[in-house]
Protein backbone atom coordinates (compact mmCIF):
# COMPACT_ATOMS: atom_id res chain seq x y z
CA UNK A 1 0.00 0.00 0.00
CA UNK A 2 2.78 2.44 0.96
CA UNK A 3 4.63 1.62 -2.26
CA UNK A 4 1.55 2.47 -4.35
CA UNK A 5 1.06 5.73 -2.45
CA UNK A 6 4.70 6.71 -3.04
CA UNK A 7 4.39 5.89 -6.73
CA UNK A 8 1.16 7.91 -7.05
CA UNK A 9 2.67 10.84 -5.14
CA UNK A 10 5.77 10.79 -7.40
CA UNK A 11 3.55 10.81 -10.46
CA UNK A 12 1.47 13.73 -9.18
CA UNK A 13 4.59 15.74 -8.31
CA UNK A 14 6.05 15.03 -11.74
CA UNK A 15 2.86 16.26 -13.40
CA UNK A 16 2.96 19.48 -11.38
CA UNK A 17 -0.04 18.93 -9.12
CA UNK A 18 1.83 20.48 -6.16
CA UNK A 19 3.51 23.56 -7.65
CA UNK A 20 3.64 25.60 -4.43
CA UNK A 21 4.12 22.87 -1.88
CA UNK A 22 7.09 21.28 -0.19
CA UNK A 23 6.56 18.39 -2.62
CA UNK A 24 7.49 20.53 -5.63
CA UNK A 25 10.93 19.81 -7.01
CA UNK A 26 13.57 22.47 -6.56
CA UNK A 27 14.68 24.13 -9.80
CA UNK A 28 18.12 23.06 -10.97
CA UNK A 29 20.94 25.63 -10.91
CA UNK A 30 21.01 25.66 -14.73
CA UNK A 31 17.26 26.36 -14.83
CA UNK A 32 17.69 29.26 -12.40
CA UNK A 33 20.58 30.59 -14.52
CA UNK A 34 18.40 30.33 -17.63
CA UNK A 35 15.56 32.22 -15.96
CA UNK A 36 17.96 34.90 -14.68
CA UNK A 37 19.20 35.41 -18.23
CA UNK A 38 15.70 35.38 -19.77
CA UNK A 39 14.69 38.18 -17.40
CA UNK A 40 16.81 40.45 -19.62
CA UNK A 41 15.11 39.54 -22.90
CA UNK A 42 14.80 42.50 -25.21
CA UNK A 43 17.29 44.61 -23.25
CA UNK A 44 20.73 45.81 -24.31
CA UNK A 45 23.68 46.73 -22.08
CA UNK A 46 27.02 48.43 -22.53
CA UNK A 47 30.16 46.71 -21.37
CA UNK A 48 33.88 47.12 -20.98
CA UNK A 49 36.89 44.96 -21.59
CA UNK A 50 38.29 43.76 -18.27
CA UNK A 51 41.00 41.38 -19.45
CA UNK A 52 43.09 42.28 -21.26
CA UNK A 53 42.65 45.93 -20.38
CA UNK A 54 42.93 46.87 -24.04
CA UNK A 55 42.82 44.98 -27.32
CA UNK A 56 42.59 46.69 -30.72
CA UNK A 57 40.17 43.98 -31.91
CA UNK A 58 37.69 45.18 -29.26
CA UNK A 59 38.13 48.94 -29.63
CA UNK A 60 34.85 50.82 -29.75
CA UNK A 61 31.60 50.65 -27.85
CA UNK A 62 30.82 47.14 -26.56
CA UNK A 63 27.12 46.25 -26.38
CA UNK A 64 25.29 42.98 -25.75
CA UNK A 65 21.61 42.61 -26.62
CA UNK A 66 19.51 39.74 -25.22
CA UNK A 67 17.62 39.91 -28.48
CA UNK A 68 15.85 36.57 -28.95
CA UNK A 69 14.44 34.29 -26.25
CA UNK A 70 12.79 31.24 -27.73
CA UNK A 71 11.86 27.88 -26.25
CA UNK A 72 15.19 26.30 -25.35
CA UNK A 73 17.32 28.98 -27.07
CA UNK A 74 18.57 32.47 -26.20
CA UNK A 75 20.52 34.51 -28.75
CA UNK A 76 22.68 37.41 -27.60
CA UNK A 77 24.36 39.54 -30.26
CA UNK A 78 27.65 41.10 -29.11
CA UNK A 79 28.54 44.33 -30.91
CA UNK A 80 32.01 45.88 -31.09
CA UNK A 81 31.57 49.38 -32.46
CA UNK A 82 29.99 48.97 -35.91
CA UNK A 83 30.97 45.28 -36.09
CA UNK A 84 27.73 43.26 -35.76
CA UNK A 85 29.26 39.89 -36.66
CA UNK A 86 29.04 38.05 -33.32
CA UNK A 87 26.15 36.30 -31.59
CA UNK A 88 26.32 34.10 -28.51
CA UNK A 89 23.77 31.30 -28.83
CA UNK A 90 22.72 29.43 -25.69
CA UNK A 91 20.56 26.31 -25.92
CA UNK A 92 19.18 23.92 -23.27
CA UNK A 93 18.86 20.17 -23.77
CA UNK A 94 16.22 17.84 -22.29
CA UNK A 95 18.37 17.33 -19.18
CA UNK A 96 18.61 21.10 -18.65
CA UNK A 97 22.31 21.35 -19.54
CA UNK A 98 23.28 24.49 -21.43
CA UNK A 99 25.39 24.78 -24.57
CA UNK A 100 27.20 27.93 -25.77
CA UNK A 101 27.95 28.44 -29.47
CA UNK A 102 29.52 31.43 -31.23
CA UNK A 103 27.72 32.40 -34.43
CA UNK A 104 29.97 34.58 -36.60
CA UNK A 105 28.63 36.27 -39.76
CA UNK A 106 29.89 38.49 -42.53
CA UNK A 107 28.20 41.79 -43.30
CA UNK A 108 26.22 40.10 -46.11
CA UNK A 109 24.82 37.63 -43.55
CA UNK A 110 26.80 34.61 -44.70
CA UNK A 111 28.54 32.46 -42.09
CA UNK A 112 32.19 33.10 -41.35
CA UNK A 113 34.57 30.21 -41.94
CA UNK A 114 35.17 30.10 -38.18
CA UNK A 115 31.73 29.83 -36.58
CA UNK A 116 29.56 27.61 -34.38
CA UNK A 117 32.42 26.82 -32.00
CA UNK A 118 31.84 26.53 -28.25
CA UNK A 119 30.96 23.88 -25.73
CA UNK A 120 28.37 22.33 -23.48
CA UNK A 121 28.19 22.50 -19.70
CA UNK A 122 29.10 19.14 -18.21
CA UNK A 123 27.02 19.78 -15.09
CA UNK A 124 24.22 22.09 -13.95
CA UNK A 125 26.67 24.74 -12.70
CA UNK A 126 25.16 27.38 -10.46
CA UNK A 127 22.33 29.88 -10.72
CA UNK A 128 24.88 32.60 -11.48
CA UNK A 129 27.64 30.77 -13.41
CA UNK A 130 27.81 28.26 -16.24
CA UNK A 131 31.04 26.76 -17.67
CA UNK A 132 31.43 25.55 -21.26
CA UNK A 133 34.52 23.47 -22.07
CA UNK A 134 35.38 23.25 -25.77
CA UNK A 135 33.49 20.48 -27.57
CA UNK A 136 34.76 18.10 -30.26
CA UNK A 137 33.43 20.30 -33.08
CA UNK A 138 35.55 23.16 -31.71
CA UNK A 139 38.63 20.95 -31.37
CA UNK A 140 38.24 19.87 -35.00
CA UNK A 141 37.60 23.41 -36.28
CA UNK A 142 40.25 25.14 -34.15
CA UNK A 143 42.83 22.65 -32.80
CA UNK A 144 44.48 25.38 -30.68
CA UNK A 145 41.13 25.92 -28.91
CA UNK A 146 40.87 22.35 -27.59
CA UNK A 147 41.71 23.69 -24.10
CA UNK A 148 39.24 26.58 -24.21
CA UNK A 149 36.78 27.01 -21.38
CA UNK A 150 34.15 29.73 -21.65
CA UNK A 151 31.98 30.81 -18.76
CA UNK A 152 29.20 33.28 -18.27
CA UNK A 153 28.14 34.85 -15.01
CA UNK A 154 24.86 36.66 -14.44
CA UNK A 155 24.00 38.40 -11.18
CA UNK A 156 21.87 41.37 -10.13
CA UNK A 157 24.30 43.94 -11.54
CA UNK A 158 26.38 42.37 -14.29
CA UNK A 159 26.73 39.87 -17.12
CA UNK A 160 30.29 38.66 -17.65
CA UNK A 161 31.56 36.65 -20.62
CA UNK A 162 34.91 34.94 -20.09
CA UNK A 163 37.36 32.77 -22.00
CA UNK A 164 40.35 30.94 -20.52
CA UNK A 165 42.67 28.84 -22.67
CA UNK A 166 43.98 26.15 -20.34
CA UNK A 167 47.75 25.84 -20.30
CA UNK A 168 48.24 29.42 -21.42
CA UNK A 169 48.02 32.87 -19.84
CA UNK A 170 45.15 33.78 -22.20
CA UNK A 171 42.17 35.25 -20.35
CA UNK A 172 39.46 37.28 -22.03
CA UNK A 173 36.74 38.96 -19.96
CA UNK A 174 34.12 41.49 -20.93
CA UNK A 175 31.67 42.76 -18.31
CA UNK A 176 28.30 44.40 -18.98
CA UNK A 177 26.42 46.66 -16.56
CA UNK A 178 22.91 45.24 -16.13
CA UNK A 179 21.79 48.19 -14.01
CA UNK A 180 21.82 50.63 -16.96
CA UNK A 181 20.01 49.38 -20.09
CA UNK A 182 20.97 51.17 -23.30
CA UNK A 183 19.13 51.66 -26.58
CA UNK A 184 18.84 48.37 -28.46
CA UNK A 185 21.11 48.31 -31.51
CA UNK A 186 20.16 47.33 -35.06
CA UNK A 187 19.97 43.66 -35.97
CA UNK A 188 23.23 41.74 -36.17
CA UNK A 189 24.51 40.70 -39.57
CA UNK A 190 22.48 37.84 -40.98
CA UNK A 191 19.33 38.64 -38.99
CA UNK A 192 16.10 40.09 -40.28
CA UNK A 193 13.92 42.33 -38.10
TrEMBL record:
Keywords: Signal. Residues 1-24 form the signal peptide. It comes from the Bacteria. The keyword Signal applies. This is Secreted protein.
Amino acid sequence: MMKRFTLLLSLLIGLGFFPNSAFAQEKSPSQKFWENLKAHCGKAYEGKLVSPESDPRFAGKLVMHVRACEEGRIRIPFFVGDDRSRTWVLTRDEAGLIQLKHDHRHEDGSEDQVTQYGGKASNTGSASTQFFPADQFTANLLPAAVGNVWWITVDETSFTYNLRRLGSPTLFTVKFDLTQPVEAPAAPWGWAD
